[in-house]
Specification:
By secondary structure, this protein is mainly alpha-helical. The protein is 63% helix and 3% strand. The radius of gyration is 22 Å and the shape is globular. Mean pLDDT is 86; it is low at 1-21.
Length: 466
């Protein structure tokens, strides 16, 4: 990340630089002078943000192809969803926020909805789109503040940490670094295996690049490991990385995934899918809220009362992108916390987001390269993403039993059963039991009681059909 001294702050909380040159229509539309920035600075900021989040073009298709979807089409769907979301964010909210398919949600989509619950990926896409509709309604109503206040921090952080841990486990398993073992159930792969050694090298290299704040550390790690993979035998007579059919090619329309969502499946299996709908909705909402707070704070864009400018437009953008994303063929789409890297490079307006969208447009021409990236190259990046998702644990007092038990149950049960719903259910029900036992029943929000009822109903329904 590039360290910059932030511009001076006016009394309204917005950065201003009176020496910044005016740039006509662009300046008046994006308020460049008002926010102390310029076109060149915004372009550099957009390039910085793109470098920090470009890994999603490789990682999202690698994960979602496990659901049986075409990987090449997923590369296009990922980039197109990012283009749509980032352009809408830049034009409607005028915030330096880049938008793309969400890490975590794509893992739940593939490994919980499709692989564990047996939902066809077309039906799973419909569930995600329906979540986007609910999120849009929530974003445009006063319910947004109520949801933000009513869901306890313990449950939010427990779910986030569980998803982060699940991402780490799935990444290491996919790369062959973790394997099945008849005695211990799981074990580390053999260090005599070249692919395992390549993954190990990436696990040591990637956090070093992040700690050293190397720009674009994750995508740089993926690229380096992919290139090394050309010379590492995979044990099947081939190399870890296959040669691409081309370097450049005309952008590919995601024919197999576009408008393939099955709305009928959603309504015929609504009850069994309800817990996952709740997860997607909460993940989308709190991810967007946290990113908005973090990025606008870093950019000195909050108003004097602490409120976020154009927050409704930003939430509506995420919701709309989550409707459009499944139509293209990808999972939940959300604002990226990596946008902070662009803010540190000077980004203050939606022009940064438009620049990010422009780079995603260029990436569409390199889809043959993204298709051949091996799991050994993406696993270290996924591990770092999972680690970052667990940082919220630092905000919780784990000496308090009513915090520790729900979080630990949510995290461990999710990973050990490879099922997020199991973890969410036990975490929520244990939270309710402890709060009631400790005499704090009146403090439990109605939303949490409703969530507990949903999990009980889900357990009854699934017990009858499984």
């Amino acid at each position: 990340m590039n360290e910059m001294t932030p511009p001076p702050v006016q009394s309204n909380g917005l950065a201003s630089d009176p020496t910044a040159p005016k740039t006509g229509t662009v300046d008046s539309f994006f308020h460049l002078t008002e926010r102390g920035t310029s076109i060149s600075r915004e372009v550099v900021a957009g390039a910085t943000t793109f470098a920090a989040m470009a890994y999603i073009i490789a990682v999202n298709p690698a994960i979602m192809s496990g659901a049986g979807m075409d990987r090449a089409d997923l590369v296009s769907a990922t980039a197109l969803a990012a283009i749509f979301g980032s352009v809408m964010m830049g034009l409607t909210a005028n915030l330096p926020l880049a938008v793309a398919p969400a890490m975590g949600s794509n893992v739940i989509f593939t490994y919980v909805l499709v692989k564990q619950m047996g939902v066809p990926w077309q039906g799973a896409l419909a569930m995600v789109a329906f979540t986007g509709v609910l999120f849009l309604i929530l974003s445009l109503s006063r319910l947004r503040e109520r949801v933000a206040n009513d869901v306890p921090e313990t449950l939010k952080i427990g779910i986030q940490a569980a998803v982060g841990t699940l991402i780490v486990f799935i990444a290491l398993r996919g790369a062959g670094f973790i394997v099945q073992n008849p005695s211990t159930y799981i074990a580390m792969g053999s260090l005599r295996s070249p692919p395992v050694l390549l993954t190990l090298a990436g696990l040591l290299l990637t956090p070093v690049l992040i700690a050293r704040r190397v720009p674009g550390a994750l995508i740089l790690s993926i690229a380096l490991l992919t290139v090394i993979g050309f010379f590492v035998p995979a044990g099947n007579g081939k190399m870890v990385t296959s040669m691409p059919s081309a370097i450049l090619s005309w952008p590919r329309w995601p024919t197999s995934t576009f408008a393939a969502l099955d709305a009928g499946y959603l309504f015929t299996h609504f009850v069994t899918g309800l817990p996952l709908l709740f997860y997607f909705l909460c993940a989308e909402f709190f991810s967007t809220l946290g990113t908005l707070i973090g990025v606008t704070g870093a950019a000195n864009l909050r108003r004097g009362d602490g409120s976020i400018p154009n927050a409704t437009a930003a939430f509506a953008t995420d919701a709309t992108a989550t409707i459009v994303g499944p139509v293209l063929g990808t999972s939940v789409v959300t604002a990226y916390i990596e946008s902070i890297t662009g803010v540190q490079a000077g980004g203050r307006t939606g022009l940064t987001s438009l620049t990010v969208a422009g780079f995603f447009c260029l990436a569409l021409f390199f889809w043959p390269v993204f298709v051949i990236i091996p799991p050994q190259a993406t696993a270290p990046a996924l591990v770092l993403v999972g680690v970052l998702m667990m940082q919220g644990l630092a905000r919780i007092d784990m000496m308090e039993l009513s915090n520790a038990v729900p979080i630990v149950l949510t995290l461990l049960v999710t990973v050990l059963t490879n099922n997020l719903i199991n973890g969410m259910a036990l975490g929520t029900l244990s939270y309710l039991a402890l709060e009631v036992t400790l005499g704090r029943r009146a403090q439990i929000p109605a939303m949490v009681w409703g969530l507990g009822a949903v999990f009980v109903l889900y357990g009854v329904v699934t017990a009858q059909v499984m």
